[in-house]
């Protein structure tokens, strides 16, 4: 009888078998397990919106922008070979003790105390004195700036302050080529200059043109190209942040304010619009530290275009000249004169022999228009007159004695030594007594010694006169354009102004610094 044997696998065996079978099934279904296969992460890549680049503009204009290197004739410290400028610890040579080593040295080898160096004859020379004491200066680099070609035959525009006093000029192009240049002309009033390269090979240069800056808006992009700190061609970008800036550099200030990074060495370099045209010439920066703080000033293309054209043609700029000293018309002054708006240029004094004086313009007149075009302020008048061709007859509208009049003037040529105003007489050293008080104005006055006006003897520090800058020693020569010689005459003019409904009166005041007008309230007391 056969024996039946039963076999029961252990739980551990079953578990091993199931695991192996499961792995086999997994491999058949999915291939190599994940932990066995090698994995690679994708690099980060972001699809950003397309932003306009300045690259095309820069590629196009860079060949036209140059660096300007200026050399000057450096003179010897002294033309007198016997003169010395030594300073020994704050003392001169003669103040040194007789036994001082330096004094003994100069006595032995010649020096400032009349030693052999001073006694030599006119034909004798000593070491270091190769031409008998008649050494000439030699050229040394003195400044470096920027510029740009304005014509294919090599005319270059830059700043006057870059080339001023220069004796030799070298142009470095963006490819490193160096070319000699000569000064064609310069204009200090607009800080512009024109150079011309020595173009012996009749080379045609890449050049740029001026833009119509009347279409330039605040907020427009500009690209400044130049040579900051002598580094070579450098490009920065920014926007036009303001127009018509007056920075006090001259009578024709009308700068574009730019927020691009402009530094020393950028002077004379162009500021381009996105069409590659010059909208301005970088000239000045506002910087307490001397470096870029984000505010730069550029000469507008409209100003530069006319000046550059004159310099290329004649090497100079001929400007019109009216010959009157002027000041702004404030709201108070306009009210005192009965003007509806605070605009125009108030004539302080016509210069003797000037076109303005010959035409009958008087102190106290307000010039409101030139050939029918409204005058905004003194700077506007100065620019408009300067733009008139000398010898041209123009028609000025002036506000005089409460009404508008017309004056015809033959504009003359502005010479280099012409001043905006005539010399002013200083206040007399000795003044008579008889002090009179004008309580309503907060001042006391005494008659002037020469009989011309009254002199301010005292000013109430809490008065409007003090707030407007009237000081002791100032001389009042007229009130509401009427000459006065006493406090009584001032009172009469003021009373008449009150009857006419005026709340302010116009006082002409002379100081050591010149003459000016100021308006004082008269409706009290």
UniProtKB/TrEMBL annotation:
Enzyme Commission number: 3.4.21.107
Q: Which CDD domains does this chain map to?
A: cpPDZ1_DegP-like
Output compositional bias ranges, type Basic and acidic residues: 116-134
Subcellular locations according to the entry: Periplasm
Q: Which residues form the PDZ domain?
A: 311-377, 441-497
Pfam families annotated for this entry?
A: PDZ_2 (PF13180), Trypsin_2 (PF13365)
Q: Where is this region: Disordered?
A: 107-145, 417-437
Q: Which reaction does it catalyse?
A: Acts on substrates that are at least partially unfolded. The cleavage site P1 residue is normally between a pair of hydrophobic residues, such as Val-|-Val
Q: Does the UniProt entry include the keyword Phosphoprotein?
A: no
Comp. bias (Low complexity): 421-436
SMART domains of this UniProt entry? Answer: PDZ
Tell me what this protein is called.
Probable periplasmic serine endoprotease DegP-like
- Organism whose genome encodes this protein: Mycoplana rhizolycopersici
Q: What is the lineage of its organism?
A: Bacteria, Pseudomonadati, Pseudomonadota, Alphaproteobacteria, Hyphomicrobiales
């Amino acid at each position: 009888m056969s024996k039946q044997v039963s076999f029961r696998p252990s739980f551990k065996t079953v578990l091993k078998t199931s695991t192996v079978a499961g792995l086999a099934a997994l491999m058949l279904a999915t291939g190599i397990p994940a932990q066995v296969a090698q994995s690679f992460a994708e690099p980060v890549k972001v699809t950003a919106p397309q932003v306009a680049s300045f690259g095309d503009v820069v590629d196009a204009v860079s060949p036209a922008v140059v660096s300007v290197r200026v050399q000057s004739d450096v003179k010897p410290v002294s033309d007198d070979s016997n003169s010395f400028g030594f300073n020994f610890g704050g003392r001169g040579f003669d103040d040194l003790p007789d036994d001082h080593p330096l004094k003994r040295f100069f006595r032995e080898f010649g020096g400032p105390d009349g030693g052999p160096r001073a006694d030599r004859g006119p034909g004798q020379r000593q070491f270091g004195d190769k031409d008998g004491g008649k050494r000439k200066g030699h050229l040394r680099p003195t400044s470096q700036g920027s510029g740009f070609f304005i014509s294919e035959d090599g005319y270059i525009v830059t700043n006057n302050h870059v080339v001023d006093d220069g004796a030799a000029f070298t142009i470095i192009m963006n490819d490193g080529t160096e070319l000699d240049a000569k000064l064609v002309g310069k204009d200090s009033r607009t800080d512009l200059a024109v150079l011309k390269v020595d173009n012996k090979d009749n080379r045609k240069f890449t050049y740029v043109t001026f833009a119509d800056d009347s279409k330039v808006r605040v907020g427009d992009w500009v690209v400044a190209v130049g040579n900051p700190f002598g580094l070579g061609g450098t490009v920065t970008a920014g926007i036009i942040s303001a127009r018509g800036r007056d920075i006090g550099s001259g009578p024709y200030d009308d700068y574009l304010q730019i927020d691009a990074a402009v530094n020393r060495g950028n002077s004379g370099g162009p500021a381009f619009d996105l069409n590659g045209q010059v909208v301005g010439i970088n000239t000045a920066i506002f910087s307490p530290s001397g470096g870029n703080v984000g505010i730069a000033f550029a000469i507008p293309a409209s100003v530069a275009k006319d000046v550059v054209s004159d310099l290329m043609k004649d090497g100079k700029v001929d400007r019109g000249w009216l010959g009157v000293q002027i000041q702004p018309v404030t709201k108070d002054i306009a009210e005192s004169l009965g003007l509806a708006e605070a605009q125009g240029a108030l004539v302080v004094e016509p210069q003797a022999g000037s076109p303005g004086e010959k035409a009958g313009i008087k102190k106290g007149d307000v010039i409101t228009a030139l050939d029918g075009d409204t005058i905004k302020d003194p700077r506007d008048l100065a620019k408009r007159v300067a733009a008139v061709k000398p010898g041209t007859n123009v028609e000025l509208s002036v506000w005089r004695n409460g009404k508008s009049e017309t004056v015809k003037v033959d504009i003359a040529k502005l010479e280099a030594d012409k001043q905006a105003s005539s010399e002013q007489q200083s206040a007399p050293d000795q003044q008579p007594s008889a002090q009179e008080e004008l309580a309503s104005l907060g001042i006391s006055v005494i008659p002037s010694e020469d009989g011309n006006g009254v002199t301010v003897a005292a000013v109430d520090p809490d008065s409007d006169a003090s707030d407007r800058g009237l000081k002791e020693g100032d001389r009042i020569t007229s009130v509401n354009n009427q000459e006065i010689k006493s406090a009584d005459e001032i009172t009469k003019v003021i009373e008449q102004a009150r009857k006419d409904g005026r709340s302010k009166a116009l006082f002409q005041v002379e100081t050591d610094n010149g003459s000016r007008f100021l308006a004082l309230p008269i409706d009290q007391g």
